[in-house]
């Protein structure tokens, strides 16, 4: 399961912690130092990046948008862009696709021809399973990773109708940062709006415009994604994870998680857990 060709994948431009190859795709866990910057450049091949720590701001011409934790970012081939990563180190799971692999997607009417960001749905579950296969490296892992990458492509195509949000104003970023810092607590729209100095209606409208979700939906997504990551790399019980994520009890957690992912927390943990994974990986 090591890379079989001498060509280094275009997107493996940080510290490559682990890499592998499946038919038509290269997969790697890549770490980037704080505030890593790269000027305008073009990659020959298409790529997915799933961010499990940190994030970055990407620029394309006059447009810019922020890719944050738990985002699956897609970049089509020959796409010109630049980026600057966050003040903390950024860790991503990267999948680079060969042209023939992308052509097969088009044959099945899976349209991926423009940059897109995906969150929620089955993204966290699929990437957790990909991460598991990358680190298990069993004989069947190549086939499993190819199938999971195809599922990610389908999920991204489904969400691609939502345009990328432009860079948000400072007050809206502050609101989002507050939500990220306190998502497990009881937050009200009025409290958040007061904290950043805007009217609740203005906050609600601006938040949905830039982040394609209401404040409540966004908080629920953060709780689900936090719980999913904890189930992958933590040995805490489901009840403990539910409480840490901000759910009132395990029953509410189970209902909400299944609605979001299609799996119960127990099914998710059983399918995505990596027994040998070091707990430091996601820190």
Give an account of the 3D structure:
By secondary structure, this protein is α+β, with helices and mostly antiparallel strands. The protein folds into two domains: 15-159, Jelly Rolls, CATH 2.60.120; 170-282, Arc Repressor Mutant, subunit A, CATH 1.10.10.60. Helix content is 43%, strand content 22%. It has helices at residues 99-107, 123-136, 141-159, 170-182, 189-196, 200-211, 215-233, 238-245, 250-261, 265-272; strands spanning 15-22, 25-32, 37-43, 46-53, 56-60, 63-67, 72-75, 79-85, 90-97, 116-118. The strands form two sheets. Strands 1-2-9-4-7-10 form a six-stranded antiparallel sheet. The model is unreliable at 1-6 and 274-283 (pLDDT under 50).
Tally of DSSP helical segments? 10
Second rung of CATH, namely the architecture of the largest domain? Sandwich
Overall pLDDT score: 83
Order of helices and strands: EEEEEEEEEHEHHHHHHHHH
Strand order of the largest sheet: 1-2-9-4-7-10
Shape: globular
- CATH class annotation of the largest domain: Mainly Beta
In whole angstroms, the N-to-C terminal distance is: 26 Å
SSE topology sketch:
Blueprint: E1 15-22, E2 25-32, E3 37-43, E4 46-53, E5 56-60, E6 63-67, E7 72-75, E8 79-85, E9 90-97, H1 99-107, E10 116-118, H2 123-136, H3 141-159, H4 170-182, H5 189-196, H6 200-211, H7 215-233, H8 238-245, H9 250-261, H10 265-272
Antiparallel strand pairs: 1-2, 2-9, 3-8, 4-7, 4-9, 5-6, 5-8, 7-10
Helix pairs in contact: 2-3, 4-5, 5-6, 7-8, 8-9
Key words describing this protein structure:
283 residues; alpha+beta; Jelly Rolls; Arc Repressor Mutant, subunit A; 4-stranded antiparallel β-sheet; 10 helices; disordered N terminus
